[in-house]
Amino acid sequence: MLPKKLKRLSDMQLIALGFLLLILGGTCLLMLPCSSRTGEFTPFITALFTATSATCVTGLILVDTYTHWSFFGQLVLLLLIQIGGLGFITIGTAVSLVLRRKIGLKERGWIKESFNVLDIGGVVRLIKRVLKGTVLFEGIGALLLFTRFYPEMGFFNGLYYSIFHSISAFCNAGFDIMGKYKPYSSFTAYYDDPIVSFTLSALILIGGIGFIVWSDIIDHKWHFKKYALQTKMVLSFSAVLVFGGALLFYLLERNNLYADMSTTGIICSSFFSVITPRTAGFNTLDIGSLTEGGKLLTIILMFIGGGSGSTAGGVKMATIFVLLLHLRSTLLRTTGTNIFGRRIEDDTITKATALLCTYLFAGLAATLAICGMQGFPLGDTLFEVISAICTAGMTTGLTGQLNFISRLIIIFLMYIGRLGSLSFALSFTDHKKLTHIMQPVEHINIG
């Protein structure tokens, strides 16, 4: 009976159900005494919050990852991060490929929905590239981090820390086990370390630009003109956000956190601080000590996020890029929304507008609810909410102060943020019959 019910579900509904089951499974494992360092049961809400954050590759935590979770608990988190980052559809397909099972049309539809690609053709090849690329980049990242961690941690600890943080960075999860030195410290001790800062930054960027972009670069190498429009937009916007954002972050913090910092520290911190909000959750600076301008810039970066079909969250770079182009064409009164010699179709603009509004409404509603219940400062609450729904994992220190209801709100935001809030909303209307009768037109004033 159950398979028949599952067959009635849309691809998006199945993916949403799969993530929910993964979160619940992770919650049960994290509640076990063997998952905690003290050997005691972990409260349900703490385990649920942590499992959701790991599966949805967010990084928000109620308890320090190193001091609370045992080695087994950390391995559970690492497994949830890897599956959540790549998607359980990817992992399931990988198992099928290893067992030489045929990937049917239904499975290909799940892959298409999971990676947010436009058509079903070539999705199996895309999966193979994703798996190979993941192993390659996470391996290189772990090797580079090992050269830094080995001298101070020893071989086995250095290797474990390197692997853990390489996976966490590539999947844009933001979980760290640096609490061994100081709880909740993340990578603040390495703010001026080029190897750690730029290795983590590179992993975050590679994981966050999108698997579709990977595939396009592999096909066309460095011939920019041959790239698909999606790839050109993501790479161009990424460059602007990284270099422009780093400069802006320096200008905002030069008389604050950068006042007594070395040149190397300033360069490493500036680039790291604009890359990690999109959407890794690590930090090398005290987020609570940022200027108000620095916090606002971080919120903007968290909201934008990474590329479509990637390990990153946010509304995605393509969404913001499309809306900015549409704004330009509207102000200049040009016909169509054009870029790189191509015109963007109207349906894409409509979807981008709906996605932006969905994130804004959900974020503002959650901010209002949490502020109303607990009376937190508006700026810190908005920071926490945007961090959750955009799966960024950064916090000014508010997470541990949330009450039960507020924690449930953040859990829900992380969940819909990983699925995509618009996709989550559409999953409830996939099988509904909507009227196609055109109503009479009447003009209204806008602006």
From TrEMBL:
It comes from Roseburia intestinalis L1-82. GO terms for cellular component: plasma membrane. Keywords: Cell membrane, Ion transport, Membrane, Potassium, Potassium transport, Transmembrane, Transmembrane helix, Transport. GO terms for molecular function: potassium:chloride symporter activity. Pfam families: TrkH (PF02386). Its main location: membrane. The chain crosses the membrane at residues 12-32, 44-63, 75-99, 130-149, 155-175, 195-214, 234-252, 257-276, 296-325, 352-376, 404-428. It is found in: Cell membrane. This is Potassium uptake protein, TrkH family. It is a multi-pass membrane protein.
